[in-house]
Specification:
The structure holds 2 protein chains of 2 kinds. Chain A is of the alpha/beta class. In chain A, 57% of the residues are buried. The N terminus of chain A is likely disordered. By secondary structure, chain B is mainly alpha-helical. Chain B has a two-stranded antiparallel sheet. In chain B, strand 1 and strand 2 form a beta hairpin. The radius of gyration of chain B is 19 Å and the shape is globular. Classes of the chains: A alpha/beta, B mainly alpha.
């Protein structure tokens, strides 16, 4: 009989993080290059989201390093390289944290001490951004998070951490406002359920949404925290079926979002309003896998390709060429964070972390100067972008149409959820 | 009525666990080798089912035998290419080698199939059967029935046939088996082949209702180890009973206690059972 000693199990556990691959893309020329570290889940359960982000950064590197006259609205669009650093090119070293906060932490340490990156971005999962940014803070390296939305990330009093994406509190406000508006138009929203995965992202976003609902006097009937790696979600769906809320808000990653939609279909459960909080629902893999079962689902997003010839439209075309599908919200937010970081390095005119930090603090980009639908980028004292905003979109066939707020809607909201 | 549905869902989930674990039981019980690549074998079988659908528009009638055959071959290759040599080395080498194989398969899958999640159409096997207020997905029912048949078949093969006796003899004492004229290599290769083939069947069936991604094996494999351990090492019927038990306990505890606590409940009960019966429910010391 095989016996596993405690020591051998320990050694196996140590072996896991060692397989995280590190590789670079970007152009290493004789001219000085600016090295930036990017940590994403390139493998693991969120691998599809991480690889999407990697492709988005690939497009962003192209935008920064090469001249794109059709992107003249973006600060680094029409020029080649960083003009403030004599046309220096940016080079990104990618690391794979596999969705594991401990690996993310050691990746950050390695990027800073061995690869000598001067700034960092990442890490998709808030729990991984939490650990990696703590290392950056200790070493005094600027860290721009483009897509991690757990509110607590910017509540730590960090000096080197900046975040461009809207956060849980913004979403809570948006959902509350949206549902309160629905109630006025005669749709029943007397009870709402929040189903959230139980790591940093799900828990803190769930809290923020609960606060948003309270603000608009909406009744939180049920809250179900669950493990995103769960193999089966029947019990959670049956709990929902029993409580029968009017609206269900899922704060989920990709694999669990897919599993929820499949399980809801087999158990014959269809709440009138289904809202997905971005992440899992925004992963292009979600629509490919269960789009036909999720028609009418509402999702939050900040990216829409917009009119032909617009900045976002051109960027979307570039991404589509590289990835084979349209730019999704998560990848777009990551790309925007990276471009904001590059703009700050350019304005700093230096690779000194302190000067980049000062330039980040002074960032003041208008809605026209970015490739995503925020009102702009301007960081508060906590490092949070004060001009971040969110839209709500609804799934129709394979595309997400903007349905809220009305001023930005491109299609009318159709309820109930068709499944 | 909802509780009844929870129990039925738990039983169907448990049948999947049992199906998933049957191959592991055979290899673990017969060879005393822990196959960490087990979950990734299932992942490969799921992709076989997926490509059967996308390439040939064929359902489980083709994908199940194809996955069984493909994985049988892989099992035999792994035995001769890796396990046979490593068996002579220290215990740690045996453990790390299948662990390495798991990572090799997983990262090859990332490279070959990308990290995207894919699924098969939900109605490949007849949708959902509705009995009163109970809803039973046909695909899970089929998986459950196959789990029962596979368990029964494997049990009968091991206990009622000459081949099974030979395999058990090799498992019991390799030297003694050689003395009575049994060549151990073909028997052990066969154990790996059959173990992997049943994993192939499991994977092709699980693909009908689960998502498919390179990491899917990772999330299922831990539970397979628990099932085999709880059922009793090498006991094929034990794995079935343990799988069903864990499925029902997981579902009920998620429903009553809360989804985040279900694993704590399952593992607490698991440890309690092992404390009373270290050999597992149906194993022998």
């Amino acid at each position: 009989m095989l016996k596993l000693s405690r020591r051998s199990l320990g050694r196996m556990a140590l072996a896991v993080p060692m397989v995280a691959p590190v590789f670079s893309i970007g152009r290493a020329l004789a001219a000085p290059t600016v090295k930036i570290g990017a940590i994403f889940p390139l493998s693991g359960n969120a691998g599809s989201a991480g690889q999407g982000l990697q492709r988005a950064l690939g497009v962003a590197i192209d935008i920064v390093n090469n001249a794109h006259p059709d992107l003249k609205a973006l600060p680094l669009g029409p020029t080649a390289g960083l003009p403030g650093l004599d046309g220096a090119k940016v080079e990104v070293t990618f690391a794979d944290h596999q969705g594991n906060p401990a690996v993310s932490q050691s990746d950050a340490l390695r990027l800073i001490t061995q690869d000598k990156v001067i700034a960092m971005t990442g890490c998709y999962q808030s729990s991984c951004t939490l650990t990696a940014s703590a290392v950056a803070e200790r070493y005094g390296i600027p860290f721009v998070a483009g897509e991690s939305s757990a509110p607590n990330l910017t509540e730590r009093g960090f000096k080197w951490f900046f975040r461009t994406t809207p956060i849980g509190t913004n979403f809570g406000e948006a959902y509350g406002n949206f549902l309160a508006g629905l109630a006025k138009t005669g749709h029943p929203v007397s009870s709402v359920a929040i189903v959230n995965e139980n790591t940093d992202y799900g828990s803190s976003t769930g809290d923020a949404i609960a606060a948003g609902l309270k603000k608009y006097n909406l009744n939180l009937a049920l809250r179900i925290p669950y493990n995103a790696n769960a193999t089966d979600l029947s019990s959670e769906v049956l709990q929902l079926k029993k409580a029968n809320p009017d609206t269900v808000i899922f704060v989920s990653y990709t694999s669990d979002s897919i599993l929820y939609i499949k399980t809801m279909q087999t158990l014959g459960y269809k709440p009138p309003v289904v809202i997905g909080d971005d992440s899992g629902f925004s992963d292009p893999a979600f629509v490919k896998a269960v789009g036909n079962l999720a028609q009418g689902a509402v999702n939050r997003s900040s990216f829409g390709a917009g009119k032909e010839g617009s900045t976002s439209w051109v960027v979307n075309q570039m991404y589509e060429k590289a990835a084979g599908h349209a730019l999704d919200d998560t990848s777009a937010r990551g790309m925007n964070g990276f471009l904001v970081l590059c703009d700050a390095i350019d304005r700093a005119g230096s690779t000194e972390p302190a000067k980049i930090q000062a330039a980040l603090r002074a960032t003041d980009l208008s809605a026209d100067q970015i490739m995503i639908g925020y009102n702009g980028v301007k960081f508060g004292p906590d490092g949070q972008n004060q001009l971040a905003s969110t839209l709500l979109v609804q799934l129709r066939d394979t595309s997400w149409d903007v349905v809220w707020p009305e001023s930005k809607a491109t299609a009318a909201l159709v309820l109930p959820f068709k499944g | 009525m909802i509780v009844l549905q929870v129990i039925v869902s738990g039983l169907l989930l448990g049948a999947v666990y049992a199906l998933f674990s049957s191959g592991l039981t055979l290899i673990w019980g017969m060879m005393n080798v822990v196959n960490f690549a087990h979950g990734d074998f299932v992942m490969l079988a799921m992709y076989i089912a997926f490509f059967c659908w996308t390439g040939l528009h064929a359902g489980p009638a083709l994908s199940v035998p194809l996955a069984a055959g493909g994985l049988f071959l892989l099992g035999v290759i792994v035995y001769f290419g890796l396990i046979k040599g490593v068996m002579r080395g220290p215990m740690l080498a045996q453990i790390i080698s299948t662990f390495g194989l798991a990572l090799l398969l997983r990262y090859s899958a990332f490279w070959a199939f990308s990290a995207n999640f894919v699924t098969l159409p939900g109605d490949l096997v007849g949708g959902t059967i509705i009995v009163g207020s109970l809803r039973i997905p046909a695909s899970r029912l089929v998986a459950g029935l196959v789990a029962l048949l596979l368990t029964l078949g494997m049990h009968l093969m091991l206990t009622r046939t000459m081949l099974g006796s030979r395999m058990l003899a090799v498992a019991e004492d390799r030297q003694a088996a050689m003395l009575v004229g049994i060549r151990p290599d073909p028997m052990q290769a066969l154990a790996w082949g059959l173990g992997a083939a049943s994993t192939g069947i499991a994977g092709a069936l699980i693909a009908l209702f689960y998502y498919i991604s390179p990491t899917v094996g990772e999330s299922l494999v831990l539970i397979a180890f628990v099932v085999v351990c709880l059922g009793g090492f090498g006991s094929v019927p034990g794995a079935l009973v343990a799988g069903l038990l864990i499925g029902v306990i997981e579902s009920l505890s998620a429903y009553w206690v809360g989804a985040v606590y279900q694993d704590a409940v399952v593992y607490a009960l698991f440890l309690a059972v092992l404390w009373i019966r270290p050999q597992g429910l149906m194993g022998t010391l």
